[in-house]
């Protein structure tokens, strides 16, 4: 359900969980499904938590493409991401 501007303003910004996960494990590269599973877990409400995952991924765009703090490689057709800092 969409929110009004007032309702939206009551929300919190929170932490980007994907950025936090990658920073905490700089020596490890993750595929998107591995990042999703690490953050959401196998038994969670996938619809709700997939929204959070996609929002976090979208907010990483400047870090990934402008600041280049996250490395990206494709291995066997699967994209992997790791923190470069």
Fold topology:
Elements: H1 5-9, H2 17-24, E1 30-31, H3 32-40, H4 46-59, H5 61-66, E2 70-75, E3 78-83
Antiparallel strand pairs: 1-3, 2-3
Detailed description of the structure:
By secondary structure, the chain is of the alpha+beta class. It has one domain: Winged helix-like DNA-binding domain superfamily/Winged helix DNA-binding domain (Arc Repressor Mutant, subunit A), CATH 1.10.10.10. 49% of the residues lie in helices and 16% in strands. The chain is built from 5 helices and 3 strands. It has helices spanning 5-9, 17-24, 32-40, 46-59, 61-66, and strands at residues 30-31, 70-75, 78-83. A 3-stranded antiparallel beta sheet has the order 1-3-2. A hairpin with a 2-residue loop joins strand 2 and strand 3 (78-83). The radius of gyration is 14 Å and the shape is globular. The model has no long low-confidence stretch (mean pLDDT 79).
Task: Describe the structure in brief.
The protein is an alpha+beta fold and 85 residues long.
Radius of gyration: 14 Å
Q: Name the helicity range.
A: 40-55%
- Return the domain count: 1
* CATH homologous superfamily classification: Winged helix-like DNA-binding domain superfamily/Winged helix DNA-binding domain
């Amino acid at each position: 359900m969409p929110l009004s501007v007032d309702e939206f303003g009551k929300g919190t910004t929170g932490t980007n969980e994907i950025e936090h996960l990658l920073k905490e494990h700089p020596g490890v590269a993750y595929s998107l499904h591995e990042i999703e599973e690490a953050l959401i877990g196998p038994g969670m409400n996938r619809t709700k938590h997939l929204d959070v995952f996609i929002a976090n991924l979208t907010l990483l765009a400047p870090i990934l493409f402008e600041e280049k703090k996250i490395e990206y490689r494709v291995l066997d057709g699967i994209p992997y991401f790791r923190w470069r800092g």
